[in-house]
Specification:
single chain; 467 residues; mainly alpha; two-stranded parallel sheet
Length: 467
């Protein structure tokens, strides 16, 4: 068994990205434990058919977790078959049961069922981490659902919204992502025990003269593994399953990536409303000591971009799985499946850290509202003037001319003079008092039903978490 150090290439996923729990699931040791779990389940089922003794099953169980990767690697160097090397390693540990390990099975009966178990475990971790992130969004929505801020379309100031409603956009997508992850998780199936081309012929022969048939055996094994099996399979489970999992994860990554890039925009000094957590000794730039860069959100965007790209080769694996099986999916799946889960796991954990530790700069929020919100709330004033009987076109022109002058002032770094201009407009004062005009220009009261809709998203998110 080779020893890996930082003197040779190792994947950043080995040590830099992904949680300890997720890395453990995709470890070589855990993989081999799962393989042995399938062999034990098969032996237990064959015992019920009278093909295996209690003593043999007990011995297999006693050594089920005695993984010896060094010995298996020595054997694999001679056989050039990793599964057979693990069988022989296990058999050396079990002199009484060694002869019945893998009885009737083909390699993918073991490997694909073990992989299905690992996929359910990895999905459970993603679901738990996504739930944690969604709870963090719920906290932020509650805290800021009534807090006005400037909304932007085309990255240009538009109308006021609330900070909580901005969080609600991501939370709504995240709620759907969580629902999709749960659905895909519930649909994961193993290959079952179907032999070399999926017909279970080897098991049919093995079970002749017993009280059991191949369907009985398969059900016993899968029940012990806690898995359902596909009704039909070839040598492998349908590779469409990998693609469905990747698509659900890719959708989740799209949600995270969109939030992260919005965060980066809001953290830029010209807007300056949000900022990431920043450590006391954290360095923003080697050249510019003053820098505070959105490195966490940039990492999230980078990882999500990569995770989403992994859907393509899984699409090809499914599309080009010729007849009953080709092996051109095997090598890339060893890389893709761990990378898909580890990168997404890291993106979720990082986003949670950002959301829970972020700062919302109220001074900047109020500054942007003061500078740009008046332009939007002038629309509200226009509607009220129309209600009072004013000529809509005439009032529109008055507001337009005043707004253009005010915009020039703002662009030149001056305070927005629009309120002063409109509250002293003689044509408008025929219909509304100065105080009334000022009240309709108050941006804090022009957020529509954003708070109510934020509460709707909170309820939807909590319902999905509880389901």
């Amino acid at each position: 068994m080779a020893t890996f150090t930082h003197d040779t290439y190792i994947s950043p996923l080995t040590w830099r990205y992904g949680s300890t729990a997720m890395r453990a699931l995709f470890s070589e040791r855990h993989k081999r434990i799962l393989l042995r779990r399938v062999w034990v389940a098969l032996a237990e089922a064959e015992r019920e058919a009278g093909l295996v003794t209690d003593e043999q099953v007990d011995e297999l169980k006693a050594h089920q977790n005695d993984i010896d990767i060094d010995r298996a690697s020595q054997i694999e160097a001679e056989l050039h078959h990793d599964l057979m090397a693990e069988i022989k390693t296990y058999a050396e540990q079990c002199p009484k049961a060694g002869a019945i390990i893998h009885l009737g099975a083909t390699s993918m009966d073991i490997e694909d069922n073990a992989e299905a178990i690992r996929l359910t475990e990895a999905m459970d971790l993603l679901i738990a981490t996504t739930t944690t992130l969604l709870r963090a969004f719920i906290d932020k929505m509650r805290a800021y659902k009534n807090a006005p801020c400037m909304a932007f379309t085309h990255i240009q100031p538009a109308e006021p919204t609330t900070v909580g409603y901005r969080f609600a956009q991501t939370a709504q997508d995240l709620t759907q992502d969580l629902k999709d992850l749960k659905r895909v998780r519930s649909e994961i199936k193993g290959k079952g025990m179907k032999g070399a081309v999926g017909t279970s012929a080897s098991y049919g022969e093995l079970l002749k003269g017993t009280r059991m048939n191949s369907f009985d055996l398969e059900k016993l094994v899968m029940d012990k593994l806690g898995l359902k099996s596909f009704s039909a399979a070839t040598q492998v489970y349908p590779r469409k399953q990998d693609l469905r999992i990747a698509e659900a994860i890719s959708n989740l990554c799209s949600t995270l990536a969109q939030f992260a890039i919005d965060f980066r925009i809001l953290m830029s000094p010209p807007i300056g409303e949000w900022s990431e957590p920043f450590g006391k000794k954290q360095v923003g730039s080697s050249a510019m000591p003053f820098k505070r860069n959105p490195i966490n959100c940039e990492k999230v965007d980078s990882l999500c971009r990569y995770a989403a790209s992994l859907t393509e080769p899984l699409w090809q694996n499914n599309s080009y799985m010729l007849l009953e099986r080709t092996l051109d999916d095997s090598a890339n799946r060893r890389i893709i499946l761990p990378a898909l889960f580890l990168t997404t796991d890291e993106a979720l954990v990082t986003t949670t850290k950002v959301v829970t530790g972020m700062t919302i700069h109220e001074t900047a929020v109020k500054r942007n509202l003061a500078a740009y919100g008046l332009f939007a709330s002038s629309e509200r004033l226009l509607m009220e003037l129309g209600r009072k009987g004013a000529d809509r076109q005439e009032m529109h022109e008055e507001i337009r001319e005043a707004s253009l002058k005010a915009w020039d002032a703002v662009q030149n770094g001056k305070p927005n003079p629009l309120e002063e201009a409109l509250t002293s407009n003689s044509k408008m004062l025929r219909y509304l008092s100065k105080e009334e005009i000022a009240s309709y220009l108050d941006v804090n009261g022009y957020v529509g039903d954003a708070p109510a809709r934020t509460e709707m998203v909170i309820n939807e998110a909590e319902k999905e978490i509880a389901s």
